[in-house]
């Protein structure tokens, strides 16, 4: 089976959540069959991310935008689908009060990050899927005010133990400290930017916010177009 056919096969219907698997109906709105042109851009992003973190036994990268509505969750999910081709265990973590990732994969109401932060065992909050190698920790029962209190240095090793690659869907940098704090506890942060929409001054403010936290690292920026990704993963904010 070719690479493109294999990725399409992996993206087919998912099982019911009674066995902690993702519901097929919940993925109906998400374009898991990725257009070929977009696949090429995603592969570039994936490969540059791995090059940036070359030598790490595992990868834990947060994804966040400067403000709401820039497509962070969509970028993360599509990038996960091309990453699972080369890494056997991928864990997606919903750490956003918007719960976009949780809603997209049909895990609303299931135990997740909130319960893990409250002391639940990691095995109780990781939900597998029928996309081989891809698992999800949904948001769980979070209140907005609790997210900033997550002990990321404590939780990050637990998440790393479950996967080779951990991608965290974070709230916007300018509305929450969670992205910066998780970045400092992990390997860094990928900033998602809506092409032709987000002003450079806003991006500069987001970068400055990250610099307030020791250890927080900006890995690069993904320019997210409406119909395709614009290459430029390691575009630096000068």
Description:
Helices cover 33% and strands 16% of the residues. It has nine helices and eight strands. It has helices at residues 3-10, 36-52, 72-83, 100-104, 113-117, 144-147, 152-160, 178-185, 200-210, and strands spanning 59-65, 90-94, 127-128, 134-137, 165-169, 188-194, 218-224, 229-230. Strands 3-4-2-5-1-6-7-8 form an eight-stranded mixed β-sheet, sandwiched between helices. A hairpin with a 5-residue loop joins strand 3 (127-128) and strand 4 (134-137).
**CATH class wording:** Alpha Beta
* Estimated helix fraction: 25-40%
The tally of structural domains comes to: 1
Task: Specify the number of helices.
Answer: 9
CATH topology: Rossmann fold
End-to-end CA span? 43 Å
Quaternary structure of the protein: single chain
Q: Name the CATH superfamily classification.
A: P-loop containing nucleotide triphosphate hydrolases
Please state the average pLDDT score.
76
Tell the overall outline. globular
Strand content: 15-25%
User: Main β-sheet: number of strands, strand sense, barrel status?
Assistant: 8 strands, mixed
Q: Which residues form runs of ≥5 with pLDDT under 50?
A: 1-31, 226-238
**Cα Rg:** 16 Å
Question: Going across the major beta sheet, what is the strand order?
Answer: 3-4-2-5-1-6-7-8
Structural class: alpha/beta
Output the helix-strand order.
Answer: HHEHEHHEEHHEHEHEE
Q: Which second-level CATH architecture applies? A: 3-Layer(aba) Sandwich
- The number of E-state strands comes to 8
């Amino acid at each position: 089976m070719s690479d493109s056919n294999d990725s399409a096969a992996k993206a087919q219907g998912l099982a019911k959540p009674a066995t902690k698997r993702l519901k097929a109906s919940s993925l109906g709105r998400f374009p898991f069959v990725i257009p070929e042109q977009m696949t090429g851009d995603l592969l570039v992003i994936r490969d540059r991310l791995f090059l940036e973190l070359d030598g790490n036994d595992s990868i834990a990268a947060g994804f966040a935008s400067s403000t709401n509505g820039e497509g962070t969750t969509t970028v993360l999910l599509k990038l996960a689908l091309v990453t699972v081709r080369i890494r056997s265990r991928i864990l997606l973590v919903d750490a956003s009060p918007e719960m976009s990732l949780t809603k997209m994969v049909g895990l609303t109401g299931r135990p997740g990050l909130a319960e893990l932060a409250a002391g639940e065992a990691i095995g109780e909050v990781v939900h597998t899927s029928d996309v081989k190698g891809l698992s999800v920790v949904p948001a769980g029962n979070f209140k907005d005010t609790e997210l900033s209190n997550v002990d990321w240095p404590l939780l990050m090793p637990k998440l790393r133990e479950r996967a080779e690659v951990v991608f965290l869907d974070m709230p916007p940098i300018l509305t929450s400290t969670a992205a910066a704090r998780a970045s400092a506890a992990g390997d860094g942060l990928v900033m998602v930017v809506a092409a032709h929409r987000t002003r450079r001054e806003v991006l500069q403010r987001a970068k400055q916010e990250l610099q307030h936290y020791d250890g927080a690292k900006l890995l690069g920026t993904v320019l997210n177009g409406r119909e395709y990704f614009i290459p430029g993963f390691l575009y630096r904010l000068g």
